[in-house]
Request: fold
Amino acid sequence: MATASSSSSYKITWINDVAGVKQSIKDLGREKEIAVDCEGMNLSREGTLDILSIATRHRDVYLFDIAKLGALAFEAGLKGLLESDRTTHTKLLYDCRNDADALLHIYDVKLAGVLDLQLLEVIHRRNRGQRIEYLRGLKKSLETYVNDRKMEIIKRKGINEIEESKKKDVNIWAARPLSDELKEYCAVDVAALFPLQKILTKRKDAEDMKIVLEGSERFSDYFRSYEVLPMKEFIWNPFLPQKILRFNFIRNTTEEVKKCQGCRKEFRKAELKISCLAQQAWLCGVCKKVEIRAKDAVSMLKWLKESV
Reply:
């Protein structure tokens, strides 16, 4: 059964049966761009995928109850929608890595046609001569660029509830009925991507957008391409991974490359620090930063909270 509720900002439709999925897919099929987000406990192949949120530019938000429907939701049309390429549907996400990993390894859905706004935000800072080694969480980006007080309050309340559930080791995303506060939180995470996209695409040329779109494909693959995930701190951390955006590629193919012992991605041997060479610790530049940063647990925890 699909049930709808309204707020002053958007219309939220809760879908927990196959008929509701099929009708929603018909509605969403008319959209050129949709915003997508997943929620679950430890969202990834190693966790759960309990809610899939999709918003349109018209501020319609669809919340699919994956905890109840499971694979039936994807068989009823979500799989085709999420796997369609950008010529059919562009999917706006903010850090698609865990979403893509969970979709593929739990439900055999290969997310495609992604425009990742976290990478677009990196380009935005780069064009202004700012540092880009760090990724910025959605909460921080909304506060910096969108400046919608109501969205910020909803986001903050949701984050606090999520943090409390983690302390108790409780999966709040699988609880039914889902609280109105968490429904609002899910809605903000997708509805906010359209105003954020509008701001971040200003004064971006075709080359900027090409870099982001190509990078979004690599970002989608970043976690899901692993047969077995490495230690999480080496792939889930505040740093922009290597080889995602074109300007931080390994360009000279004649140079000797090594496989990082952290993220298990290839990198140039020339990038190794003298200390790493002496210890034969093959860590790429990003994973070396992670190793150093891990000693500063307070800073890492702050970033993790902002990235929710």
